[in-house]
Specification:
The structure is a homodimer. Chain A has about 220 residues and is α+β, with helices and mostly antiparallel strands. Chain A contains eight helices and eight strands; from the N terminus they run αααββαααββαβββαβ. The structure holds manganese (II) ion (4 copies). The first copy, chain A, binds a DNA duplex (30 and 30 nucleotides) through α3.
Chain lengths: ~220, ~220
DNA sequence: AGCTCAATTTAGAGTAATCTAAAAAATATT
DNA sequence: AATATTTTTTAGATTACTCTAAATTGAGCT
């Protein structure tokens, strides 16, 4: 029997937040990620723990079990494959696909996803530059560095973003800072990483907050 | 604010069942269609009535309002477009797409559906031969007659099925009776419409129950 | 070691969707 | 017209998910 959308969203949130060593995630971090109350999170952590998808001890945080990790990774795979479909096949823009994929990722059918993956040509990255896990849960890592950490004079290519909210991506569209663009840093403020850079002949100013969410492959 | 999946499924069921003159549908008919209890149906009819998506009087059945009709028709459009996608683009078979489309139809995004429609080339019929409403809710009707009503000697082409359950469609696959096939009736039992017919050189026997769910365009 | 405060959990409650069993209304039969 | 049967509704519960407010726990600081 499958999981509910809510259970799946929690697993995905825990995976996203568990970058740390042992991968333990706090109740409040999950609540913030899912924009829900800490009390709701506690309830759900008990349920997921009963189903052995996470390990959880009161007051000690949660981490994914192997089963939980596998399920969460599959959700990420589905989310990102659908995003590729929406952009590549349907011609939607990178700023409008995340919310839709947030629903599509819950469609239940392994066969569907394998077919979709095949149809799309086994893409390795989604429209935001995030890696797509394969059917075995493995994915490609790339050397990348936040734009905010580049020194004046350094050059590179935009290969990803760390944030997929519509407002952020629309902002980048307006600045012309989309995937694949070549950039060169002119100045980078020591204090708050306010940047000026060169993109396709134009000069551009960016806040440190924005620059920290743009990932660069240096050239 | 959007409707829940349950509310949408009820609207779709009412549309499907309201072929009659005024289009009034009984509580039990809906319960049977959705495989749920009559008590649950009554609860939901009250809710949909409050939202003015149906007209409903106790003990008198329900019918769609214009708003309800519009929403239900859009759901049918989405369901059938997704079925076309699954078969045409992903190469799935007509017997495995209905259940998946039952979920996909609830994805919320008008823009997505318009893009999908465009991507698929504005198809007029789904993989079961059912017409696909356009964005305005209009669809093409075709002259068709149940195979069970053909007389011995009559010929035609399979242009649709009235039932999209997997088991039924798999049965047709085994018999080689798929969309587009040419058939010729040899015998048709007066009492129960047990048929024998000619398909691609082979002779085939069908129960009346099956024959009543296969739609033919006579030639 | 004890105190303080933030993080977390528990308590209690609400909404949505569903069920079974009992009551009421409508329809069919005699 | 009265009675029997079927259909539909109501009553009362259950499960899943969520919330706010109150209680508890644990970690950091004197
Ligand atoms: Mn996304
Ligand atoms: Mn989601
Ligand atoms: Mn279908
Ligand atoms: Mn559905």
């Amino acid at each position: 029997m499958g999981l509910s959308y809510a259970e799946e969203n929690y697993l995905k949130a825990i995976l996203k937040l568990s970058g740390s060593p042992d991968g333990t995630v706090s109740t409040n971090a999950i609540a913030a990620q899912l924009d829900t109350s800490a009390a709701s999170v506690t309830d759900m952590l008990k349920k997921l723990s009963d189903k052995e998808l996470i390990t959880y001890q009161r007051y000690k945080g949660a981490s994914l079990t192997d089963d939980g990790q596998r399920i969460a990774t599959t959700l990420v795979r589905k989310h990102r494959l659908w995003e590729v479909f929406l952009v590549q096949s349907l011609g939607m823009t990178w700023d409008e696909v995340h919310e839709i994929a947030e629903e599509l990722e819950h469609i239940q059918s392994d066969r569907l996803i394998d077919r979709l993956d095949h149809f799309l040509g086994h893409p390795k990255f989604d429209p935001h530059g995030d890696p797509i896990p394969n059917a075995q849960g493995k994915y490609t890592l790339r050397a990348q560095i936040p734009l905010s950490e580049l020194k004046p004079g350094q050059e590179g290519i935009v290969i990803g973003v760390r944030e997929d909210e519509t407002s952020f991506l629309k902002h980048l569209n307006e600045k012309g800072l989309t995937l694949g663009k070549s950039i060169k840093v002119i100045t980078n403020d020591d204090y708050d990483n306010t940047l000026s850079l060169q993109v396709e002949g134009h000069e551009l100013n960016l806040s440190g907050k924005v620059a920290r969410n743009i990932m660069i492959k240096t050239t």
